[in-house]
Each structure stands twice: as C-alpha cells, then as structure tokens.
Amino acid sequence: MSDNSTPQHGTTEATAAERMAKEVEELERRSETAARLFDVRRIIGGLFVVYGVIVTLAGVFASDADLKKAQDININLWTGLAMLVLGIVFLVWLRLSPTIPPPSATDEEQPKENGTG
Amino acid sequence: MLHLAEGLRLPTNALDYTLLGIYFAVVLGIGFAARTSVKTSLDFFLSGRSLPAWITGLAFVAANLGATEILGMAANGAQYGAYTVHWYWIGAVPAMVFLGLVMMPFYYGSKVRSVPEFLLHRFGPSSHLLSSIIFAVSAVLIAGVNLYALAIVLEALLGWPEWVAIVVAGFFVLAYITLGGLSSAIYTEVLQFFVILAALIPLTIVGLKRVGGWDGMSDKLTGDHGNAFMTAWEGTGIGSDNPLGANWLTIVLGLGFVMSFGYWTTNFAEVQRALSAKNLSAARRTPLIAAFPKILIPAVVVVPGLIALVMEPALGKPGSGLDYNHAIPVLMRDLLPNGVLGIAVTGLLAAFMAGMAANISSFNTVFTNDIWAAYLKKDKPDAYYVRTARVVTVVGVLIGMGTAFIASSFSNIMNYLQTLFSFFNVPLFVVFIIGMFWKRTTPAAGFWGLLSGTVAAMINYFWFYKQGVIDIPSDQGANFVSSIVAFVVGAVVMLVVTLVTRPKPADQLAGLVYGTVSPGLEEPPAKGDDAWYRKPALLGWGAIILAAVCYIPFSF
User: Fold this and answer.
1) Which residue of A33, A47, A77 is the best one to mutate when testing the B interface, meaning the one whose CB has the most B CBs within 10 A?
2) What CATH superfamily classification does B6-413 receive?
3) Do B22 and A51 touch (CB under 8 A)?
4) CA B71/CA B449 separation, integer angstroms
5) Over the stretch A39-95, which tens digit does the pLDDT of each residue have?
6) Domain ranges, ordered by start, for chain B
7) From its phi and psi, is residue A101 left (phi > 0), alpha (psi between -120 and 50) or beta?
8) Cβ pair B267, B96 in contact under 8 A
9) Residue range B87-126, pLDDT digits in tens
C-alpha cells in the first residue's frame, strides 16, 4: 500500500495490474504465517494418538455384541491401532524434519527450538 | 433432498460423544493458535502464500470431500452402480492435472489473490464485478445449503433438533475462520481428511465382509441389476438406455470436459488452496498431489453405496422409507460398534463443517478483496481489510445460517439453488480458457461470454428440460447437456464479440495469456524442488495414467 505511488510505464490499467502484484509482494514480505503458524503435523499426530488410544481400548474391551455387529472383526482394535500408528508417524516426521521458520524481514529470528518440538 | 427416516437413529453412547467433543475442542484450538499468525490481509486470505504443497494438496482434495459429496456419491453408487466412477476418473483427474500443469503458472505467477482478480487483469472491471458478485452470492448460499444438509442428517442420526445442529456447527465454523482465516480452514480440512478416512476405511472393510467380499457383492448386483451395473461404459452407446441417462459423448464432453474443468479450474473455493502455497512449484503440485487421493476415494465412497444396496435392496424404492442418500448412514447403523461409530459421526460432521468452511473462507476473500476493496472502500490501510474480512466472515456465516433456517421450511428450494449454481462455473471456464489461449479476446467478450453462457445453461435446464421441450432421461443427463450448451453459447458469443470490439494492447497481457511471461514475476526455483518426485509433469501424467488404469477392471 505504501509504495504504490511510483509511476510505471504504459497506461493506467497496466499499472493497476503491476501495482497489485507489488502490493502482494509487499504483503508477502510482512506476512507472519510462515514464521508463526504452528505445524499441522503436531495437531494430526496429537489427535490421532489420543483417538488411537481411546479406540484401541474400546477394542480391547469389546463386547460380544460389538464383535457380532462388525462381522466378527474387532474393528475398534484394528482401527485404533492404525490410528495410533498414523499419529506416531506424524509426530516422528515432525521430529525428523522440523519446520524451519524463514528469516523474517519485520521480526527478529524465532528461536529455533520452537520448531523441533 | 435428504429426508432421513426415524429408523436411522444411531446407537451412539458416551464414548462416541467423547470422540466428537475432542474434535470440536481441537478445531477451536486450531482457530486460536492460528490467530497469532494473522498479521496482514494476505495472511488471512491466502495464509501469506507460505504453505507446503502436501498441506495445500490435501486441503484441495478435502475442500471437495464435503459430506454432501460423500453422501451424494455413495447415493450415486447405489443408484447408478459403477458408472459413478466417471465423476472421479474422467470427471476430476484430467481437470485437476490441467489446472496444475497449464493454468497454475498464470494464476500463481500473476500474484492474483482470487479467481475474479485474474479476470480483472485479463478483461477489466465489468467481468470482474459480475463474476465476483455471482461467486460471493453462490458461496454464501451454498454454505447455507451445506448447513441445512448437516442439520437433517444430524437430526436423523443423533436426534438433535435441526436448529441445534445449525447453530452449533455454524458457530464453530464462524469461530475458527474469524480467528485464523484461511490457515485454520486449511488445517481443519487436512485434519478432516484423515478423520473421514479413518471412518470410511473400516466401514468399507466390515461392509465387504458382510456381503461376501468383492465377488459376492459383484455377483449379487449383476444378478439383480444386470451386467451393465458393475461396468463403467456398457450401455453408454448413443441412443441406448442406461440408468445414468447419459451416453459416452455427454459423459466425456459434458462431465469430463466442461463441467469438471469448470469446477476444478475456476471454482475459487478450490483454487484458493493452491494460491496459498509457498511458491510456484508448490502451487502447481497442489492439485496434482490432490489427484492421487481423488482417484482412490471411490473405493471408500462408491463401494459402500454398492454394499448398502446389497444389504438393503429396498434402498431408493418408494415406500421403503430409505432413499439413496441413506446408503452410508445405513452401514454406520448396522455395522459399526461404538468407538469407530464415534469416529464416523465425527468424520461426517467434520466433513460438513469443512465443506461449509471452504465456501466461507473463499467468500470472505472475494467479498473483501474483489468487491469491498476494489469498488467500495479503496486504498485503506491493510489492517482495515483484515478487520473487514473478519466482519464479513461473521456476516457470511449468519446469512448461511439464515439460509439453512429458510431451507428447513422450503426444502425443495435447495435443489434449485444447487442446480442453479452448478451453471456458473462453466461459463467462467469458457471465458478463462479462451482468454488464456487467444490473445485477441477483448474485454467486452469476457463479460458477454460470461453472461450469455450462464443464461443459456439456465434456459436449457429450466425451460427446455424441465418443461419437456427436449427429452433427456435424467437430471444428471440434463446437467451434462446444459453444461455443453453453456460452453458452446459462451464460446460463440465471445468469438463474435471479439471480432467487433477492440482488444487490450498486447503489453498489458504479459503473464496473463499463454506464451507470455510477465517481466520480473518469475521466481527462482526453491531448493529441493528439482527432485524427480516433485516434477509437476511426472505427477500430472502419473495421475492420468493411474486413472486410466483404474478403468480397466470396469470396462470389460
């Protein structure tokens, strides 16, 4: 918004398109998402570990009626274990390749430990 | 629409509600945590153009995997059989690949923040304003349709009164999008993608065991409904009869080309996910990464529809109290014990909310960026537009909730609305495709092409088809034909108008038309993006080949 007064060559419409592109570039520089947004892998991993444990326990204590309903498959046990594994995979992935916040133009560097979890 | 019988009540217990409650808490947490990352309007609308491709790719497919889509495609499976795979393999994958390989460099490279903004640069204000208004109105009303669909499903499955479902779901969507903008919408979509799969995969496995495996199901359905029911192409010759009411030509042109390209390449609720990617390579890979799950989703959506038809042969028959949309709820009721049942209810609710959130987050962007900031309140400080966007989000959700309440008294209005909006994408696609590939296309042609294509599709559907002037056997078939009509009329009008009006000077089209690159707008490739598995061409053609291979077992 601030530096859009510099006149460009061409007609007004050409400058409109270029000005908007400049504006987006400027906003990109000031954007905080890359530096501050938490990593979604933490959320997926956390939720699926919790869901996995709960559903696995439901499978361990499955009643005969539960088993019969699911065609003699202990579906809670298997689904729970699969969810647990998926959750752990996401947490391990996050640990092995943590997000590195890019150097931000407006802020001082975020502490690196932030990303490694 | 969906009229669910009393008998569909699920035997949910405290365990299932615990799982549901955890999900709601996490979603709200995402909203609060994402809030700190919103500093500029670009953060709110496009996550600061900073997300990695795997996240935007999963959000791209999840934004489409709303609950109306899941229940609807399972319903199509039960009604039309294996023909339903056309909506995925020919009706989605080629368009997604085209978006990634051909169109994304223009969208992302020109740094537009929305699909209408691209029209502003390519054609000018008249087509920009027209498409912005059409999009904003339809997005917010579709959000309402989604909310209403959620309310009737929850009423039947859980016994919640309709207004409770509308208020609760509406409130959560409002909260997390107002707080975190597109970032929280995208994160929630990625989460929803995994939860819905964790529900649909066990459902399919248990269901297949119940009906005697794939062979048992296939034999039974072939016996009851004929050979063509389990094939993709049999009976689609021109003039021959099939349940879909369409022939191979309308399937390939209407569904596979016009409708699908219109939806996937110009619907901003989808394209927005790709525009939030961190660089051009990630933006191009967004729809390509999404194409792979899209190819496999019929295995857990269409197959349950087929299973439900074996288990409840009365499904969809008059007097049974069950219509085709009940396919997945019937399986949930009959096959899933508490625990996985809670995951399934959560997944369904999450899918409804994500579908609504995709519409709301694209609505607030187009309204704020393309209507408010472009024509009503120009050149305010950026913080003003962030505040505006938050207010617009609240207003949008409230209008959506109002629409849902109105719909609960006049339910057939909703069917019309949905059909109506399905006609807006096709003319938009005509304008894009011709404008991108034919440099001479004039600003006036953009506007008149958009308007005439939209009107033509409506005349064909509501007058020629509904009044019986032409004979098409089914609504689906009529949709395909209307789309082709919209495409042809829009294209012809653009051609004629272009020939009699003045084109934009070539130097204003840099980066907007095929074969041009805008000076100074190229980005150097990021480190690691030259790895072979990140090559867009390989991903794109790989998806096309995989989709073609998937057809083989259903073609003979």
Assistant:
1) A33
2) Sodium/glucose cotransporter (1.20.1730.10)
3) yes
4) 34
5) 999 999 999 999 999 999 999 998 889 898 888 899 999 999 999 999 999 999 999
6) 6-413, 423-515
7) beta
8) no
9) 999 989 999 999 999 999 889 988 899 999 999 999 999 9
